[in-house]
């Protein structure tokens, strides 16, 4: 049996982060392989591993590395499969590894998760696989329900320990609250047949959104593009996300606090790709986008790199689509033959 996921560590010292991925993949019952190969010290080994694994049918790669974490980018150079990068905390808190992983050039995207977030890398890999694997989709739903239950139960385990003269612990009991599901309203300007939904949080982000759309057009991927902010238009945002039932991948583009990708993760179990942007380096949007809590990963690409977001979406959708794979390979090979 060919594993669906290959985890490659840049060093054996990264094994504790890999174990976070392993625990999730075991729980989700997704077959995986684990190897150690350094992008710098055993470059030819990385190349051979990735090429042969791709040919064998591995669907997703996870690269885990610290310091000058070039491993995920090198993996991406040798495959048309999606690559997830896990930066590992080091001497400067893992920021060096984060930047090395996320800021790779077009057309070799790395879907970067938060520092040391091996668990989110595995969940993201499962989300990619779940697009064409119903069993994986069910397992993801079960896992997300577990995370939600932990949060709800904290209202009783954590808050009950608080002692105070003025706290009312019985006010608005969490489990008794009525959560209403609004009926989805259709809108003529939305393309409900789209496989990729591109959402910009502000009209100033539309330049990046257009870069995404151009590449998706080249890859012949049907998409929809809208400007919707979950803070300014919360009802319309929720209605849109829940109404786009044929969408397999969401791409959120945002400057400042990247609430748009967080909003997407809260409303869908489909993979969410994040494109941080902004005039002042985009560091604020990058950090608020990539550093998601366990269970709700954002596949973050480089600042303003909308083109890599589109390529990543293509890689995800091409896993079980031979026609998309051919177009994707032609696009990547053409751009990399400079």
UniProtKB/TrEMBL annotation:
Catalytic function, reaction form: 5-carboxyamino-1-(5-phospho-D-ribosyl)imidazole + H(+) = 5-amino-1-(5-phospho-D-ribosyl)imidazole-4-carboxylate
Isomerase among keywords: yes
GO biological process: 'de novo' IMP biosynthetic process
Pathway: Purine metabolism; IMP biosynthesis via de novo pathway; 5-amino-1-(5-phospho-D-ribosyl)imidazole-4-carboxylate from 5-amino-1-(5-phospho-D-ribosyl)imidazole (N5-CAIR route): step 2/2
Keyword line: Isomerase, Purine biosynthesis
GO MF, any single term: 5-(carboxyamino)imidazole ribonucleotide mutase activity
Domain PurE stretches: 3-151, 194-337
Residue ranges crossing the lipid bilayer per the database entry: none
Pfam families: AIRC
This protein's record includes keyword Magnesium: no
Binding residue positions for substrate: 11, 14, 41
EC number per UniProt: 5.4.99.18
InterPro entries to which the protein is assigned, alphabetical: PurE_ClassI (IPR033747), PurE_dom (IPR000031), PurE_prokaryotes (IPR024694)
Chain's role: Catalyzes the conversion of N5-carboxyaminoimidazole ribonucleotide (N5-CAIR) to 4-carboxy-5-aminoimidazole ribonucleotide (CAIR).
Family assignment from sequence similarity: Belongs to the AIR carboxylase family. Class I subfamily.
Protein name (database record): N5-carboxyaminoimidazole ribonucleotide mutase
Organism of derivation: Methanobrevibacter woesei
């Amino acid at each position: 049996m060919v594993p669906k996921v290959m985890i490659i560590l840049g060093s054996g010292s990264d094994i504790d982060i890999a174990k976070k991925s392993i625990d999730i993949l075991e729980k989700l019952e997704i077959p995986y392989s684990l190897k150690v190969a350094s992008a710098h010290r055993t470059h030819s080994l990385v190349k051979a591993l990735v090429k042969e694994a791709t040919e064998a049918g591995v669907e997703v790669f996870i690269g885990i590395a610290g310091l000058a974490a070039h491993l995920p980018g090198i993996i991406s150079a040798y495959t048309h499969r999606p690559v997830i990068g896990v930066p590992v905390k080091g001497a400067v808190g893992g920021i060096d590894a984060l930047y090395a992983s996320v800021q790779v050039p077009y057309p070799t995207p790395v879907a970067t998760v938060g520092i040391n977030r091996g668990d989110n890398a595995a969940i993201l890999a499962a989300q990619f696989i779940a697009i064409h694997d119903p069993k994986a989709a069910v397992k993801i739903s079960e896992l997300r329900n577990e995370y939600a239950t932990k949060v709800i139960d904290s209202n009783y385990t954590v808050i009950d320990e608080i002692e105070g003269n003025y706290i009312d612990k019985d006010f608005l009991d969490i489990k008794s609250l009525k959560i209403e599901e609004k009926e989805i309203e259709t809108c003529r300007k939305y393309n409900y047949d789209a496989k990729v939904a591109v959402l910009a949080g502000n009209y100033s982000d539309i330049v990046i959104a257009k870069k995404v759309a151009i590449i998706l057009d080249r890859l012949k991927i049907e998409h929809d593009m809208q400007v919707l902010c979950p803070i300014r238009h919360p009802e319309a945002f929720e209605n849109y996300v829940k109404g786009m039932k044929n969408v397999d991948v969401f791409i959120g583009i945002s400057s400042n606090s990247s609430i748009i990708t967080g909003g997407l993760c809260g409303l869908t179990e489909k993979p969410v790709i994040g494109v941080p942007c902004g005039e002042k380096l985009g560091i604020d949007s990058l950090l608020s986008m990539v550093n998601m809590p366990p269970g709700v990963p954002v596949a973050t690409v480089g600042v303003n790199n909308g083109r890599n977001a589109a390529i990543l979406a293509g890689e995800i959708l091409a896993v079980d689509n031979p026609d998309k794979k051919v177009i994707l390979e032609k696009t990547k090979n053409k751009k990399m033959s400079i």
